[in-house]
Amino acid sequence: MKFIISLASLLMVGFLEANAQGFFNKEEVKNNRNYLEQRRWSWGYYLGFNSLDFKIDRIEESDEILVTKNIGFNVGLIGNYKINNYIDLRLEPGVIFSNRDLNFTAFGDDQVKAFRETKATYVYVPLVVKFSTKRLNNFKPFVSTGIGFAHNLSSNEDNPDDNAAGQFRMKTTNFLYEVGFGIDLYLEYFKFTPSIKGIFAINDELVRDKDPNSPWTSNIDKISSRGIFINFTFQ
């Protein structure tokens, strides 16, 4: 995932460097000048992939809980309200597919007790504020920040079974904040936007076992999702 993020960042930087002289030394024809620049509302969709992780805070230092991250997929819609030429307010509802594996090292080679799979399908609805620079011919860099909630369609929060029966339980509703950056590229017929953002859960997502001395959950103070998203937006 670090390689993918680095590659995406290099592509963005390379694009800017390769076109900097043309952008700053001469005036190019501006694509979509009227449609995207003047309209108060605009719509679009995004496709991308993610790498979600868990941030685990333990009450006492003891055997580690290892997290194995897997590449996931995300897709969603965008409703964009233009406040002015530099600030946009966006609603970006989407669906996130992810899979993370936990390994409780205290159980050693006993994989039945040590291994827990946490597949999740989130409906994620963030409200995002986008801060852009002045448009430079056919591109416009930006940074963004937002807050949202995620409803886990795969949650087993209400399952009466816990880790004693092999069920690692997570909460259904979670709240997150995000920060990101990207570049709007104004093409002839539409606007294409590659972007990178990090998301971070605010609340504790763990549903604890019935046994207060559970070897799986008793030493966990808080567990929360975090991750990297790489999205490609079309408007």
Question: Outline of this structure?
Answer:
This protein is mostly beta strands.
Structural notes for this entry:
This protein is mostly beta strands and 235 residues long. The protein has one domain (29-234): Porin. The chain is 14% helix and 52% strand. It contains three helices and ten strands. The chain has helices spanning 2-25, 33-38, 111-114, and strands at 41-58, 65-69, 71-82, 87-91, 94-104, 115-132, 139-152, 173-186, 191-201, 220-234. Strands 1, 2, 3, 4, 5, 6, 7, 8, 9 and 10 form a ten-stranded antiparallel beta sheet that branches. A hairpin with a 4-residue loop joins strand 3 and strand 4 (87-91). The chain is elongated, with a radius of gyration of 21 Å.
